[in-house]
Amino acid sequence: MHPMLKPALRRAWRDLRSVQFGATSAHAVVVGPLDTTTGSLLGLLDGTRGVELLRAEAGALGLRDGLLEELLGRLAGAGLLADASAGRPGKAGAAAPPDDALDPLRADLASLSVAHPEPDGALRRVAARRAARVQVRGAGRVGATVAALLSASGVGRVDVLDSGSVRPWEVAPGGLPAEAVGERRAAAAHRLVARSAPGGRPPRTPRRVTGELGREPGLSLVVVTPRDGLAAYLPDPIPAEGWITTGTPHLYAGVLEATGVVGPLVLPGGTACARCAQEERTDREPAWPRMLAQWRSGPPAEVPACDLGLAATVAGLAAAHALAFLDGELPSSTGARWEVSLPLLEWRVERMRPHPACPCGAGRHGEGEHASGLGAPQDTMAG
């Protein structure tokens, strides 16, 4: 191991005896009390030295035996240490050379190192992303951008499903380019995914999808991003039946009129599904099925409203929630829907409750809770 203080966390002395790592309240940790000599040892934790060399350096500084191990243990427990040699080839006891293949993901790795405390947490999650397969259903302004973001973030396989040809109002920075207008959406989206991957890669031939929707093995997540935002805002339970049956997690996102939505992330059998939401709304509003039938059967708008800034906002948040899930977390869209509307752009959240009569089973088994919070910097004593 080559211990390294996580470089993504900004460092500042709070006083003569304590150091704060991290500027934001969500990640800040205070280390203390520290004397001047131990503070000098902190400066050597830059990833260029192995533990044996650090032990010798600590001895040369006059520090007592065992203090280095105590310090490393406390720093690791506080989530402040990374292993500079993790995942890199190199001679034992020597600092490993940088892995050029990871260069496009260096900023992502830095962020992951902050969000996940274990020394090798960032590299393990990038490896998991590479093994993941995500299906994005819809290649409009939101869907194509989500697919590009997931591919660029290291997801190993991103399949995009859509039909028809790209229209001029569907292009977007970060999504389908202007030169794709008139091309088949699926083919244009596959090229976008390949071009967005770290280091780029040759585009695969778009796969034909046959049989029932959602009954495909190996899917880590489905992101439902229909070009008609109604199917994201008020999702139809029928297309989701295959995902419920196979236990495939799926996340809805889109823009309808002047409102963007992200969520819910549905964990089949654990959180509310599209049918749960529909049944619950019908219980409160008996006229709801009549209106749904009219909206779903009516002709779609030739040019659906989709503000570019709003679409980019929704796509970015949806991709971030999808990545959080692939990284092993339950984002705040789990069993909930986030909404934001023009012109004020104030985010609001609606908790989606499982319906006891829904065959998905979430109402019978109960819904898992997910809590998160921000607080004052943590304190950890070292030195």
Word description of this protein:
The protein has 383 residues and is of the alpha/beta class. The chain folds into 2 domains: 3-103, Outer Surface Protein A, domain 3, CATH 3.90.930; 132-365, NAD(P)-binding Rossmann-like Domain (Rossmann fold). It contains 13 helices and 13 strands. It has helices at 36-42, 51-60, 67-77, 106-115, 121-131, 141-152, 185-196, 230-233, 241-246, 274-284, 288-297, 308-326, 362-365; strands at residues 3-5, 11-15, 18-21, 29-32, 81-83, 133-137, 157-161, 221-224, 250-256, 259-266, 336-341, 348-351, 378-381. The strands form 3 sheets. Strands 7-6-8-9-10-11-12 form a 7-stranded mixed β-sheet. A 4-stranded mixed β-sheet has the order 2-3-4-13, with no helix packed on it. Strand 11 (336-341) and strand 12 (348-351) form a beta hairpin. The longest helix is centred in the last third of the chain and has 19 residues, at 308-326. It starts with a strand and ends with a strand.
